Amino acid sequence: MSATPATATPGRGSLSAETGVARAWRWLREHAVNIVAVLVVVYLLIPIVVIFVFSFNNPAGRYNFTWVGFTLSHWSHPFSNTELTNALLMSLKLALLATVISTIIGTMMALALVRHSFFGRRVTNFLIVIPMATPEVVMGASLLSFFLILGTPALGFETLLIAHVMFCISFVVVVVRSRLIGFDRSLEEAAKDLGADAFTTFRLVTFPLILPGIFGGAMLAFALSIDDFVISNFNAGSTVTFPLYIFGAAQRGIPVEVYVVAMILFFGTVLAMGFATLQQRRAERMTAIRPEQEESDIALPGIA
Amino acid sequence: MAAAIRRRSVAYFLLFPGAFWLIVFFVIPLYFMAKLSLDTEIPGTLHYHFTWHWDNYKEALELYDTQFVRSFIYAGIATFLCLVIAYPLAYVIAFKAGRWRNLMLFAVVAPFFTTYLVRTLAWKTILADESPVTEFLHAIGLAPNSHILYTAVAVIAGITYNFLPFMVLPLYASLERIDVRVLEASKDLYASASSTFWKVTLPLSLPGVVAGTLLTFIPAVGDYINAEFLGGANNRMIGNVIQSLYLTQSNYSSAAALSFVLMAVIMVVVFVYIRFAGSEALMGQEAV
C-alpha cells in the first residue's frame, strides 16, 4: 500500500470512515477545475443560445428583448426587410474585397519578413504590431481626420474598404507568418535540385504548403471585416453595413430578422471553419509523407 | 553580389504594398489627428486652422476626466475578471480536455461567429429586470434593486464576455507549450498540486497571461458598444465621448485630443506593464 506515490490520494487510509458527504466533497474538489471550465464554456455559449431562441420570437413591440411567443415567420422570410438585406449585402461585398486585398498584401509581407533579410526589418515588425495594439476608436478617429482634412475620397464604400484593408493586414501577416516559420525548407531545396526555377518552386511547392495559412489569414480577415463596427462607424458616411444597420436600428427598434441573419452568419462561419480544418489536415498529410524523416532526425545532431 | 541585390529588391517588392498601405492609412492619419488636436476652429465655419492650441487638451481632459478614469477602471476590472474566468478553462483545454479539446476551443471562438452587436443585444435580454439571471442574483443578494441593466455591473459584464476569447486563446497557447514532464518532475519531487501550480505552471504560462491581458485590456478601454447598449447615462466611457464629439457634435479638435491622450496612456500602461511583467510576449516575437 505504501508503495503508491504520494500524488493524488493523501489520506486514503481513512477511506472506510469517510461519509457520503465527505466523498462528494472530495470528488468536487478533485474535479473543481473541470467543473469551472465547463461552466465557463456554458457562459460563452449562453448568448448564442439566446440569439438562436430569440430568432423564433414573436415580439409584441419593436424590440426583441423579452420572450412573447414562438413563430417561424422570421426564419421563413429572413430577407424581407430590404434595408437589412441591403446592409448585409454591403457587408458581404466589403468583407470579400477587403479580404482579397489584405490577404494578397499581407501574404507578400509575411513572405518578405520570413524569407528575406532587409534593412528596416524591425521597423516593419513594429508597423505591423502597432495597429493591433491601437484601440479601434483611435484608428477610426484618426482615419476620419485624415479623410476630412484631405477632403477626398468622400466618405462611403471606398473609405470603408481602405479602412478595412488597413486593420486586416496585420492579422493576415501574423497568421501567414506563423505558418511560414514552421515550414520545412528542404522541400523547396528538393524542387530546386530537380531543376525547378524560383517561380515554379513557389507555385508548385511553397504556395500549396502555405495555402492553409493563407486561408486561415483570409478567414480571420473576413470575420474581422464583416463584424467591424467601430472603425466603420467613423468612416462610413451614409453607407450602411450590417453592424451599422443594427446600431441604427437599436435606437428605433430591432427587427427579429437581425437575429435570424446573425444565426445564418454563425452557421455559415461554422461550415467554413469545418472546411478549413479539413484543408489543414490534408496539407498536414501532404508534408507527413516523408519516408526519410526518421533517418534525418537521427543524423542531424551529429552534424550540428 | 548581383544575386544579393536582386534578392533584396524582391524583399522590398513584397513589402511595398503592405508597408505603403499601413503608412498612408495608419501612420499618416495619426499625424493628421495630432495636427487636428492642436487646431482652433474658425468660429461657425467647421473649418480649422493650426495654432498649437494646447488648450484643446486641457479643456477636453477637464470636461471628460470622469469618463476617462471610468474607462480605465471598467477595462481593468473586466480584464481581471477575464483572467480569473479564462485561466481554468485554458488550463483544462491544455491539460485535461483530451478528445474534447477541439470542441472546447470551438466554444471559445464561437461567440466571434455571431455579430458583436447582436451578442451585446443578447446580454440586454439576459440582464433584463425580469430575466431569470437578474432574479437569481437578486435572490442571493447581489442585485439589491433587482436591477442590473443600465448600471456599471452590466457594462463590465458585457465587456468581460465580449473580450473573454482574447484572454483564453493566448493563455491556452502558452499553457499548451509547457512540457508536461516538467510538471511531472515537480510532482516526483513531492510538490503538492497547489505548489506545482504556483511555482511551476503559473510562472511558465506568464507570457500568455501578459499577452492575454494586453489583448483584452486595449480593446476594452476604447470600447463604447457595451456602454452604449448596456449602460446608462452614468456609465459612458471615453469611447462614447470620442464617438459623439466626432460624429454628432463635430467637435473634432477635442475629440482628436482625447484620442491622442487615450493612445498615449495606453502605450504608457503597456510599456510599464511589459517591463513589470518582464516579458516580450506581445505577439511580436522576432521571426526566426
Written overview of the protein:
The complex is a heterodimer of chains A (304) and B (288). Chain A is mostly helical and 304 residues long. Chain A folds into two domains: 18-74, no CATH class; 79-288, MetI-like (MetI-like fold, Orthogonal Bundle). Helices cover 73% and strands 0% of the residues of chain A. Chain A contains 13 helices and no strands. The longest helix of chain A is centred in the first third of the chain and has 34 residues, at 82-115. Chain A starts with 19 loop residues before the first helix and ends with a helix. With 288 residues, chain B is mainly alpha-helical. In chain B, strands 1-2 form a two-stranded antiparallel ribbon. The longest helix of chain B is centred in the N-terminal third of the chain and has 41 residues, at 55-95. Chain B has a single domain (65-277), classed as MetI-like fold. Chain B contains twelve helices and two strands, in the order H-E-E-H-H-H-H-H-H-H-H-H-H-H. At the A-B interface, helix 2, helix 4, helix 5, helix 6 and helix 7 of A face helix 1, helix 2, helix 3, helix 4 and helix 6 of B.
Under CATH, the topology of the largest domain in chain A can be stated as: MetI-like fold
Q: Which band does the percent of strand residues of chain A land in?
A: under 5%
Tell me the total number of β-strands of chain A: 0
- What does the radius of gyration of chain A come to? 27 Å
Low-confidence stretches of chain A: 1-13, 291-304
Question: How many alpha or pi helices of chain B?
Answer: 12
CATH architecture assignment name of chain B: Orthogonal Bundle
Q: What's the quaternary structure here?
A: heterodimer
Mean pLDDT of chain B: 86
CATH superfamily of chain B, by name, is: MetI-like
Termini of chain A, distance in Å?
48 Å
Unreliable runs of chain B: 279-288
CATH architectural name of the largest domain in chain A:
Orthogonal Bundle
What is the fold-level CATH name, i.e. the topology of chain B?
MetI-like fold
Largest sheet report of chain B? 2 strands, antiparallel
How many domain units of chain A? 2
Secondary-structure-based class of chain B equals mainly alpha
Number of domains in the coordinates of chain B?
1
Please give the share of residues in helix of chain A.
Answer: over 70%
Structural class of chain A: mainly alpha
